[in-house]
Amino acid sequence: MIRLERRPEPSRAWTLATPFVAVALTMVAGGLLFALLGKDPIEAIRTIFWDPLFGDFASYSRPQLLVKAGPLILIAIGLSLGFRAGIWNIGAEGQYILGAIFAAATGLAFYPAESWLIFPAMTLAGALGGLLWAMIPALLRVRFGTNEVLVSLMLVYVAEALLASMALGLLRNPDGMGFPGSRNLAQYPSAANPELIVGTGMHWGVVLALVAVIVGQVVMTRHQLGFRVRLAGQSPRAAVFGGVNPSWLVVVCMGLSGALAGLAGMFEVAGPAGRLGIDFNVGYGFTAIIVAFLGRLNPIGILLAGLLMALTYIGGELAQLQMNLPLAAIQMFQGMLLFFLLAIDVLTNFSFRFGRRAVA
Amino acid sequence: MTFKTVLLGATAAAAFATGAMAQDDKTKVGFIYVGPVGDLGWTYQHDQGRLAVEEEYGDKVETVYVESVPEGPDAERVLTQMALQGADLIFTTSFGFMEATMNVAQKFPDVKFEHATGYQRADNVSTYSARFYEGRAVQGLIAGEMTESNIIGYIGSYPIPEVIRGINAAYIQAKKVNPEVEFRVVWAYTWFDPAKEAEAAKALIDAGADVILQHTDSTAPQAAAQEAGDVITFGQASDMLDYAPKPRVSSIIDNWNQYYIDRVGAVIDGTWESKDTWDGIDAGMVEIGEITDAVPTEVKEAALALKDAIAAGEVHPFTGPLKKQDGSDWLAEGEVADDATLAGMNFYVEGLTGEIPQ
């Protein structure tokens, strides 16, 4: 008989190995799926993982990886902080939307004036928008003991309704012939978040994502906040005795993750997306949760996980284009990645025992 | 611009890569869809058009598609990838792809683009749409005759001229045959989301609607109507025959097949030119799906007569006297709406209640 036995301490080896094993298993199971669909599995896997990086048109798709991964990484870094402390901000998508709304409103308030101050003001507004939206579940939890998972998630739908109302009303482009959506901020020089170095895909949001990875790493390993977060996550009672104020921690973690999500929304609306439309949000806030876990809630891991996730998106499109693979198969493939990750994750904390349970 | 040079380099590489392949004489046609090809509505019909192109030209063409592409930067990336991979002609089949289409078309002047339901054109960008409002008028007539509660529910997708036009056209006809009729519009803010559409349908049925019209693409409202019992619906974009004879009593079918075949043919012949196409029932772009026996014979005959009159150009669904919702004059007796007003329609006609969200 096979039993699972809790390890005295989480296995470091498995913590590191899990993502790689999960990716490998996803390739095998995904390959099987593609083969069942009558497609060449090797070619499909190569199209998804190799072509965006080294294929014929990689000079275009490589920078696109950064554009797609930037917001994912930025949001996931913020989320990972709270997740480690057992504070579950599931509503990053809403905070992302609010960041974009605040930033777009700030930028458009100055239109068509040109000033170098507009972009920094929008950045601040974006962070503030996300922060304020995250404060709602944070303060409700601190004050009334509500569940932040539910409140933050529900606020995503409120944010979506607010976004629709903005795109149709207050922020609608007056020159848009009656169609919804704001002016294009990417075409408004003072507000635009352009590619910083041509052909690299690097915009301010990507730069900030990389900075967030470094700062996140330093905070987690060297700063008192990181220590408190880890302590609260491992043993909430010990943390209280150790002088960590749980309410303070909730507010800080939710606030930081909200601000980072808001910033991601700001850089997206001023750059790649350009305008605030009804469908502005495409799920970065939710995908970032996967990225955070795929990256083991570790900043460097999140960086790699964000890039991997972006790779499956762009590679998935290529597989649709070149091999006529249905989107549903690609989405299943992405789902498998998380599934295997969580399944293998068991091995971090448990080990297999063969044979009968020893009598204690 | 330097970004352009990079891309031009990439296009050169693309030309080289495709040139190296054997089947370079094939015309490559790309399609980008906003929903899944299995939505059995809007996207499904466009994909039927793609298959019709394949059938018509066989080995002379190669078609590719990417489904469920969000409208925004993702669309731009997918379009660029298509162009880089050597597509000669790309159909962008949702209004929200307009900006992405224009941006990518500018970077690839040799690739032809066809944008559905938009209003921006360029030397290599055509636009096309169908006069769905003609079908809506026929639908409105049946709806007005069939309703017993005199409340007709309407699931709107986005408050854009296209959708507002449909509501107006249906309402005008319904009101003509049944002066008591009332429209309740719910905005779903999606083209395809079965859960949201079902919710909207249920809310409308709860509010007393016994006829549901939809401008969203899934069959979820049909299923909700079936469950509720005495409610009728109309297939949207596609025939949705699975729900016939009731709740689905008829449908508006978008038939893109001939248009796609013609436009691909023009690229093959080298006669493609940028233009705007807006065809209706007479050209076969809008079809009325079979009216089932759930509809009384005289209503069915009236509906078909209206359809024929529209096709023959004898009746225009927007003919005066018509006032706007605010009571101001729009069309005088016998006056017919011009295409420019229809294309940018952002007001309800008199009698409709509720506001267009803004």
TrEMBL record, chain A:
<feature type="transmembrane region" description="Helical">
    <location>
        <begin position="276"/>
        <end position="295"/>
    </location>
</feature>
<feature type="transmembrane region" description="Helical">
    <location>
        <begin position="327"/>
        <end position="347"/>
    </location>
</feature>
<feature type="transmembrane region" description="Helical">
    <location>
        <begin position="65"/>
        <end position="83"/>
    </location>
</feature>
<feature type="transmembrane region" description="Helical">
    <location>
        <begin position="149"/>
        <end position="171"/>
    </location>
</feature>
<keyword id="KW-1003">Cell membrane</keyword>
<keyword id="KW-0812">Transmembrane</keyword>
<dbReference type="InterPro" id="IPR001851">
    <property type="entry name" value="ABC_transp_permease"/>
</dbReference>
<keyword id="KW-0762">Sugar transport</keyword>
<protein>
    <submittedName>
        <fullName>Simple sugar transport system permease protein</fullName>
    </submittedName>
</protein>
<feature type="transmembrane region" description="Helical">
    <location>
        <begin position="12"/>
        <end position="37"/>
    </location>
</feature>
<feature type="transmembrane region" description="Helical">
    <location>
        <begin position="240"/>
        <end position="264"/>
    </location>
</feature>
<feature type="transmembrane region" description="Helical">
    <location>
        <begin position="202"/>
        <end position="220"/>
    </location>
</feature>
<feature type="transmembrane region" description="Helical">
    <location>
        <begin position="117"/>
        <end position="140"/>
    </location>
</feature>
<feature type="transmembrane region" description="Helical">
    <location>
        <begin position="302"/>
        <end position="321"/>
    </location>
</feature>
<dbReference type="Pfam" id="PF02653">
    <property type="entry name" value="BPD_transp_2"/>
</dbReference>
<feature type="transmembrane region" description="Helical">
    <location>
        <begin position="95"/>
        <end position="111"/>
    </location>
</feature>
<keyword id="KW-0472">Membrane</keyword>
<keyword id="KW-0813">Transport</keyword>
<keyword id="KW-1133">Transmembrane helix</keyword>
UniProtKB/TrEMBL annotation, chain B:
<dbReference type="Pfam" id="PF02608">
    <property type="entry name" value="Bmp"/>
</dbReference>
<keyword id="KW-0813">Transport</keyword>
<feature type="domain" description="ABC transporter substrate-binding protein PnrA-like">
    <location>
        <begin position="26"/>
        <end position="310"/>
    </location>
</feature>
<dbReference type="InterPro" id="IPR003760">
    <property type="entry name" value="PnrA-like"/>
</dbReference>
<dbReference type="InterPro" id="IPR028082">
    <property type="entry name" value="Peripla_BP_I"/>
</dbReference>
<feature type="signal peptide">
    <location>
        <begin position="1"/>
        <end position="22"/>
    </location>
</feature>
<dbReference type="InterPro" id="IPR052910">
    <property type="entry name" value="ABC-Purine-Binding"/>
</dbReference>
<keyword id="KW-0732">Signal</keyword>
<keyword id="KW-0762">Sugar transport</keyword>
<protein>
    <submittedName>
        <fullName>Simple sugar transport system substrate-binding protein</fullName>
    </submittedName>
</protein>
